[in-house]
Each structure stands twice: as C-alpha cells, then as structure tokens.
What does this fold into?
Amino acid sequence: IYHCKGSDGDDAYDGVVLIRKVGETYVFQWVYGGTVTEGVGVRVGDGLAVGWRNIGETLLGSTLYRIEPGKLVGRWTAVRTNSKGNRLTGKVNGETLTLLKELEGK
It folds into this structure.
C-alpha cells in the first residue's frame, strides 16, 4: 500500500494506492477524493510503465515511474473524451508514491 501525492497541474491530490504483482504484471488501484482509478503496468529495469483509467469517467492515461528505495516517482499524462466525443489532450504532471505498508503474499 502506498501513499499517493501529486498534482494535475491545477490542483494537488493525495490518496492511497494498492499495487499487486501478478506474474510479470503490476495491477494498480488508486483511491483519492472519491475517485477510483485502475491500471496495469510492466517493469523494465528501474522503470514501471502503467496504463490506467478512472472508473465511471472518460479519463485515460499513462504514468512512467522511476523506482527508488521506498517510493515510486512518476510523471503522467491523460486524455478525456468530452460529451461530443472529442479528445482533449492533457498536460504532463508529477506524482510520488511513498510506501506505507508491504502486504504479505505480494
């Protein structure tokens, strides 16, 4: 379980992230401000690339994390489909995940 702290360029956010390793895939679930986001990732060296979507919303994104002792430091971007089906591009933003507790059987 990780503490998540970041910014979308306009507002700061924080919450918790559960990360489970399933085979060579990393399964993510972020919970912050009443929003749930799910994603999957793959590790290459000290990098972890994650694709994700907000549940119940039209926001899709990707994050690239650098793995450091006790934390993941990342940069993310996203796109949102508006009601007319137009794709709106996102900015590149920062996020840090700090380890709170390792779970047994991870």
